[in-house]
Design a protein that fits this description.
Strand content: 5-15%
Structural class: mainly alpha
Radius of gyration: 32 Å
Catalytic activity: tRNA(Glu) + L-glutamate + ATP = L-glutamyl-tRNA(Glu) + AMP + diphosphate
Number of domains: 4
CATH topology of the largest domain: Rossmann fold
EC number: 6.1.1.17
Number of strands: 12
Helix content: 40-55%
Number of helices: 19
Keywords: Aminoacyl-tRNA synthetase, ATP-binding, Cytoplasm, Ligase, Nucleotide-binding, Protein biosynthesis
Shape: elongated
Distance between the termini: 79 Å
Strand order of the largest sheet: 1-2-3
Subcellular location: Cytoplasm
GO molecular function: ATP binding; glutamate-tRNA ligase activity; tRNA binding; zinc ion binding
Largest sheet: 3 strands, parallel
């Protein structure tokens, strides 16, 4: 029987869902889904000054758009503060923690002296082994009684074994003098209480793991499997920041990237399965494991993201793509398409989605559907509608009135008409594109005619033919 896997994503609600956080959530989601496990969401809102409801909402929206559905209710870390304090008191009762009455001034004096003597500035509390009978009636913090000798080994699935000497770990504060728990304690208690078996997170937390492991061991709890993943860097090899472009997931939605494409790209950012670049969610869930995560930071590459997104758009179900296109419109504050436009877009989707990498590109290709008569050609298209071209369109229109409206018949008719005029169909294409779409670059003339239908096609040609 395989172990029951429980992973979690635990962002702080101090801003948007960062692209790095989104990848961490994705890795946790893939690992859990591939093992019939649970993927949980906890909002680490203990920093009351910086945590906001708006940021929590942005994180939830970002995860929803990315398709990373979590199991169960969202857990608020702040709401569990009473439980965190109880654990600190249990550790106090069992001798794994102690009361420390040292003031901030005393701690600073200790550190100043340590710096002057060029020794560790880790505070060594004089209260660690004090007789409880000597405790004053003053405010105190609860500190972990960390081992002073030996080593703590983090057995990490990505980084390998990481060994830290215990004399490098201080007696960290678990409970402040006002009775509030510190983040380090809260994380461990929450992960234990939520049954988390695998902690998959950024390697900026690797140093925390040693101190957190001491709490697990002090409580006699099962230590989770650690997997600390490298951070994402920009194309220049420096930590991803605003200068590299978009950071928040909602910005990628607003730029028109399909969610499936971003999921695929983020999965490949730091993890690999052979040489596979393009894959479905089902394949990612089946293939994803911790062994495939590299130790080096991954570099974000917009060109690769666009290429992957283009492949996903081309492979998408037409109705699903139309649904996501409408979601993109809503997310960017644009009005919804009418029912009639949606029907035409769905009919055109097989050729619109080819070679489009983003929804704005797809919308540009769909201009012939989204524009209403009279079509106003742009500057480049207008050049194709000179008086000679208008005359040709006037002559062509009667031939189309009785044509069978199939691709084969329309191609045959147009080629024959061009031949009669002593030219090739390619010469007719420019004026036809300008008349039907008002653009010089469009989908195939025949694709547009078939989607628009006979009446609309003839009406547009007639408008363009007028001098």
């Amino acid at each position: 029987m395989t172990e029951h896997v429980v992973t979690r994503f635990a962002p702080s609600p101090t801003g948007f869902l960062h692209i790095g956080g989104a990848r961490t959530a994705l890795f946790n989601w893939l690992f859990a889904r591939g093992r019939n496990g649970k993927f949980l969401l906890r909002i680490e809102d203990t920093d009351r000054a910086r945590s906001t409801a708006e940021a929590t909402e942005a994180i939830l929206k970002g995860m929803s758009w990315l398709g990373l559905k979590h199991d169960g209710d969202v857990v608020s870390q702040f709401s569990c503060a009473k439980r965190h304090a109880e654990v600190a008191k249990t550790m106090l009762d069992t001798g794994q923690a102690y009361k420390c009455f040292a003031t901030q001034q005393e701690i600073e004096q200790f550190r100043e002296q340590a710096r002057a003597e060029k020794r560790s500035t880790f505070f060594k509390s004089p209260w660690r082994d004090a007789d409880p009978a000597s405790h004053p009636d003053l405010p105190y913090v609860i500190r972990l009684r960390a081992p002073r000798e030996g080593e703590t080994v983090i057995r990490d699935k990505v980084q390998g074994d990481v060994t830290i000497r215990n004399d490098q770990l201080d007696d960290m504060v678990l409970l402040r003098s006002d009775g509030t728990p510190v983040y380090m304690l809260a994380v461990v208690v929450d992960d234990h209480d939520m049954g988390v078996t695998h902690v998959i997170r950024g390697d900026d937390h690797l140093n925390n793991a040693a101190r957190q492991q001491l709490i697990y061991e002090a409580m006699g709890w099962q230590v989770p499997v650690w997997a600390h993943i490298p951070l994402i860097h920009g194309p220049d090899g420096k930590k991803l920041s605003k200068r590299h472009g978009a950071l928040g997931v909602e910005e990628y939605q607003a730029m028109g990237y399909p969610a499936a494409g971003l999921r695929n790209y983020l999965a490949r950012l730091g993890w690999s399965h052979g040489d596979d670049e393009f894959f479905t969610d089902a394949q990612a869930i089946e293939w994803f494991d911790l062994d495939g995560i590299g130790r080096a930071p991954a570099r974000f590459d917009f060109k690769k993201l666009e290429n992957i997104c283009g492949l996903h758009m081309a492979a998408s179900d037409d109705a699903a793509l139309l649904h996501e296109l409408n979601g993109f419109r809503a997310a960017t504050g644009q009005p919804a398409f009418t029912e009639q436009k949606n029907e035409l877009l769905l009919a055109a989707m097989p050729f619109l989605k080819e070679r489009a990498k983003t929804f704005p590109e797809l919308i540009e290709k769909a201009a012939f559907i989204l524009e209403d008569r009279p079509i106003r050609p742009d500057e480049k298209a207008a050049k194709a509608l000179d008086s000679a071209s208008r005359g040709i369109l006037r002559e062509l229109t009667p031939h189309l009135q009785n044509a069978s409206w199939s691709r084969a018949d329309l191609e045959h008719l147009m080629n024959r008409f061009a031949e009669e005029k002593g030219t090739k169909f390619g010469k007719l294409a420019g004026p036809l594109r300008a008349a039907l779409a008002g653009r010089a670059a469009t989908p195939s003339v025949f694709d547009m005619m078939l989607v628009l239908g006979r009446d609309e096609t003839l009406a547009r040609l007639s408008d363009a033919a007028k001098t």
